[in-house]
Amino acid sequence: MPLCLIAFLLVAIQPGALIDSNQEEICDTRNTTKGECCAFPFTYKGETYYECTTKDFNGKQWCSLNEDFEKHRRWGHCANQTRKPVFDVILDVTGQDGRSRDNIELFQGDIVMTSQIRNNLRSRGILVPNNDPRSPLSRCGGKKLLKRPKRAIMSTNRGSDLRWPIGRSGKREVPYEITASNYNVRGVILRAMDHWMDKVPCLKFVSITSRRSRHLSFFRGGGCYSMVGRQPGSGPQKISIGNGCGYLGVVVHEIGHALGFWHEQSRPDRDNYVTINWSNIRRGMAYNFHKYDTTRVDSRGVSYDYDSIMHYSSTAFANRAGVRTIVGKNGRTNLGQRYGLSKKDIQQANLLYGCGTRPPVTAVPPKPPTPPPPGCGKIDRYAWCPYWKSKGHCRTVPCKNKHKNCEPWARSGYCQSYKAYMDQFCKQSCGKC
């Protein structure tokens, strides 16, 4: 019986069966010496594995049988089948003509087109065609338009403007709701968020308490699409998980956009690693292969990643079957994958969101119930006096650090990235006096 590959089940392996977060029986687990497939990921004795392993199994590898896949096709593919990258799934469902099935204008196949993106393209001399086949712009190949680069005028994601803010937990909190239209893929969405939180520990997805605040709103639209980064304003920021998008890798990809990630081949240095075959691109779609400069995309020093969950497939926007629009300089054609975050994705996300160097959960001191008295006498008249004293309120010099970690935070650059907090509690370290 052929073996199969089960993709991205956030589950725990016991000697018996795999159980998902909804307590549904997914498949029986077998051990094999053939090594033809693995279950991704699985947890055994407290350790998570993302590839085949022989650890603790007497040299035998743990896999799942084809009969299990037949019951749950959305979780993976059989070992004798060709894998379809995440981006191919997205384009198959959403379409490749610049608009989703529900008529949302898109950039690069799954990014909601905004006036900011359009203005940036125009500032570089790149014209975005409309979707009328009679339009002259729709017949432009786009290659010539790319030859007049100008400085981007869009806001940058090098700062904190695209990131989700720090919440009460001390982590970067992403409020969300899963609308009734997405109830059938609720489990996939929750597993995708769990995967991000597992790999980027300073991120936390929290169920919304108020629909008036900015939050991600998962709904069933006409395809798979999202916006890049936290958008200004309030209310829902929609992320479409339409029919056919309910694969974990696809949802991880769309959440990646919402967290501030562009497609990997949009990097300023992409031409050092991949070749764009302009003649193979669908008519009017060449603008989707636009790359950003360093004022818009900051890769945080992480090298180019052919395996990124955010990478185009090699046939994205191809004008005919059997041709490739993007290939690696090293000849590589299997670009992107479908299982989730690559090692470099994880590294970049942790750098972007400051994991490991951010202020601890206890960084914000508790607020006294009343303002501190003007001075502290010999006899404490308020229960909060010891706390006020520990924070420097009994001293005559007002410009002092109010947290023990102010100095290392200042050295880590938090005087700028967490300006409001640091100005209040770390004035001395930030040179405010």
UniProtKB/TrEMBL annotation:
Q: Does the keyword Signal apply?
A: yes
Q: Sorted alphabetically, which InterPro entries does this protein's record hold?
A: Astacin-like_dom, FN_type2_dom, FN_type2_sf, Kringle-like, MetalloPept_cat_dom_sf, Peptidase_M12A, Peptidase_Metallo, ShKT_dom
Residue sites binding Zn(2+) per the record: 253, 257, 263
Q: Which GO terms describe its molecular function?
A: metalloendopeptidase activity; toxin activity; zinc ion binding
Q: Which PROSITE patterns match?
A: ASTACIN (PS51864), FN2_2 (PS51092), SHKT (PS51670)
Enzyme nomenclature, EC number: 3.4.24.-
- The UniProt record lists the keyword Hydrolase: yes
What this protein is called in its record is Metalloendopeptidase
Q: Source species, please? A: Acropora cervicornis
